[in-house]
Task: structure prediction
Amino acid sequence: MFEFLLILGVAFLAFALRTSSRPWLRKIGALAILAASFMVGYFLSNGLIWVGALTAIAWFFIPWFEIFFRIRKLRLPLDKKIRHKAPPSRERFPDLPEVTEEVEEEGFEYVDDAGWEWNDTTQFFRLFYHPKSKTEVAVCLSEQGPVAFTYVSLSSRTRDGRILRTWNYPFSYTMELSPDLKMNRALTADSFSDLLTRHTDFLSQQQISSTELTEENTEEIHDQLQREIERQINYNLDRGIITLSGEGTFKYSWRGLFFLWRQFVKDMIKLS
Result:
């Protein structure tokens, strides 16, 4: 009875901590969940520590259900045609007008609404450009079946072909980054102004001056995004993360599935 009450108490503590608005308390809550899981295995096995450890570690293998039963069967297009696209309804992207206003208040000029679709996956981008700072902004909505999330990215391109990007994309990357792409994640940015400041600081840290940045032709932004996606796909084909699956599609290889699992685990730790 004592063991049951102890597990129940730790579980309630974990739940209380997980509902906190403070990140460090939520992380302690995640550790409390692992502790409760350990105790379940430990007490049920009459004190075998390795069983308790396996019970706690089992949380990190839960992503394999998604990987094995859905992602393993997933087929994605090699040629993702980015075209002009009507903006989503306010129900699907309620923050779009407010974020648009924030971006335009910082002097960025609206370029276009664009995106691509494939089966139940939809990507929408509202594109902006700031000629003076040579910075491109994309306000994005990603929809994958019932799951949807939004993010904002700022990109600067150098004359030698490098891309420096700051964004608040909430998850780890689903492919390996090509060498010409340098990423700066800013998950804690609380406004577009804050995100812009972090991008400016990122350029300074990388010792990139405005003279090294290339001016973009806004009429070619679609093509530029298209080429970037193609480079990323080709790089991951070469790395063995993805493999051709016929009819103009690709799928994740077993190496790619293990790569995704590692990324899922990183998210579990970072977002806990």
